[in-house]
Amino acid sequence: MNRPHSLEKLRSGQVFDLLVIGGGATGLGVAVDAAARGYTVALLERGDFAGGTSSRSTKLIHGGVRYLRQGNLKLVRTALRERGLLARNAPHLVHDLDFIIPAYGLTDRAFYGLGLKLYDTLAGPLSLGPSRILNRPETLKHLLNIEPTGLRGGVLYHDAQFDDARLAVTLALTATDHGAVLLNHAEVVEFNRDGGRITGVLARDRIGDRNLSIQARLVINATGVFVDGLRTLEDPAAAPLVSLSQGTHLVLPRSFLPGASALMVPKTEDGRVLFAIPWRDRVLVGTTDTARPAPEVEPRALAGECAFLLAHARRYLAKAPSAKDVLSFFAGQRPLVRGKPSTETKSLSRDHSISIGPGGLLTVTGGKWTTYRAMAEEVVDLAGRIAGLPAKPCITAGLPLRASTPIRPGSEPLHHRLPYFEAEVRRAAREEAAQTVEDVLSRRTRCLLLDAGAASACAPRVAAILAEELGREDAWIAAQTAAFQKLAADYIYPAN
Ligand SMILES: Cc1cc2nc3c(=O)[nH]c(=O)nc-3n(C[C@H](O)[C@H](O)[C@H](O)COP(=O)(O)OP(=O)(O)OC[C@H]3O[C@@H](n4cnc5c(N)ncnc54)[C@H](O)[C@@H]3O)c2cc1C
To answer: Which atom of ligand 1 is least distant from the CA of 79?
Structure first.
């Protein structure tokens, strides 16, 4: 991805077949699908790729044991199929993980054991391995720090783990390889119209501080929790489509969950699912499900959410974490397709919704990271028909996703507490469209999520490297460092 090259193409006056607004899982999936079919595609992202919900997930490619309990077998079956396809197409980013449900009650093992057999069956030939019942010693061996009092055994099942922001960059690179033109830090601010019909967009390039006018046969609104804002721009009378539910995660040192297995608590005291997952030499604990009134670019965890997560982690972990152990915490907002006004967000469907507005804006929202490819296939099939494009088959079910180029050995580490190197900063600037210190420390690497204090400490060095790569001045280094350190302060748990 090369910014000057993308800008040149976007300013060439070309009429694109499809223009996608939003560079999260949904929009990037659509760009890959459409470009791989041979359509001409442009994608504009207001902030960074995956800067919204798509970098703040639990990082699971999963069928969703929770949706099994809700009886949404169709969603579980689709998600399990997608899990299998993604494990094949991006083996460098998606891997199998053992999950253990600890059983304390008399009937827990039988109940969850049976449910997970159904999960195995729904996965069919793309199963990652059969679930099985564990006795108490086996459970203690898998989950070395599990609370032993009253433990009867457990159930082991398989799901997959991935790095959400890295998959987003991979999708962006793959779309570019197939000819799509992508630009981050470019916000769509208005629609171009012919009569009432949308014929393109007006966007603001926030890096170059200039306007861009781009024409397209069809415009796709894939802006996640922000879809209603663009729908209202199209039609001020549009009724809201999404409800917002916030999910928070805490990051702890790995010593709280040694071993290779994740812990899954199928029902917390208020009916949620809770995970403690080994992730890059840390433990990710989450998530919550809290209704929020309005979408936020940088959502912040509520004090009650953090307290809830710590309280449950303490209940299930023998060596119990306290606030001072939290290395970072972060929140994301789910776009949930609306139910009745009184419906609680945790019981709203994780299915997606596709709709067309009066000006021809195609909006897609909802769903999960896991199902981004299937959603994209459906969207591009429909978009092609509406835009009158020649029918072309979807090829993404068997399309390998691009791997990043390896970094040179011998590069300096960014920080002794972080598993990243300076060469990764240079690669992010040269090949992965990183424009800011936040792009590098939050999404090209995951420093901000793994250890917010350490990420803050290496911000000046990262700003200096980026300045060399992007041709920036000293004032830019100072401003970028200050902006990132202000952001990182919000990821450091208040007790620390
Ligand atoms: C806490 C939490 C945990 C989750 N865990 C999982 C999980 O483990 N597995 C799973 O499968 N799914 C998970 N999900 C769901 C998954 O993360 C989301 O379904 C997915 O990321 C949504 O992607 P999106 O592209 O629709 O939205 P987003 O990622 O929010 O992307 C929308 C983009 O649109 C951009 N945008 C907005 N307005 C404009 C504009 N005017 N111009 C240009 N761009 C604009 C935004 O900047 C944003 O980047 C989780 C969600 C949450 C909140």
So the answer is: 11
pLDDT along the chain (496 residues), means of 10: 94 97 98 98 98 98 85 89 96 96 89 91 92 96 95 96 97 98 98 96 96 98 97 95 94 96 87 91 93 94 91 94 96 85 52 93 95 97 97 97 84 95 96 97 98 98 98 97 98 83
The CATH H-level superfamily of 3-53+166-241+346-398 is FAD/NAD(P)-binding domain (3.50.50.60)
Hey, where are the domains in the chain?
3-53+166-241+346-398, 95-160+243-335, 422-489
Amino acid letter, 137: P
What own/partner pairs with CB < 8 Å and gap ≥ 24 does 493-496 have? 493/250, 493/306, 493/323, 493/324, 493/326, 493/328, 493/329, 494/323, 495/322, 495/323, 495/324, 495/326, 496/323, 496/324, 496/326, 496/453
Residues framing ligand 1 (Cβ under 6 A) = 21-27, 44-47, 51-54, 56-60, 187-188, 222-226, 247, 287, 332-335, 365, 367-370
Q: To test the ligand 1 pocket, which listed residue (67, 162, 223, 230) has its Cβ within 8 A of the most ligand atoms?
A: 223
Neighbours of 223 (CB within 10 A): 27
pTM over 0.85: yes
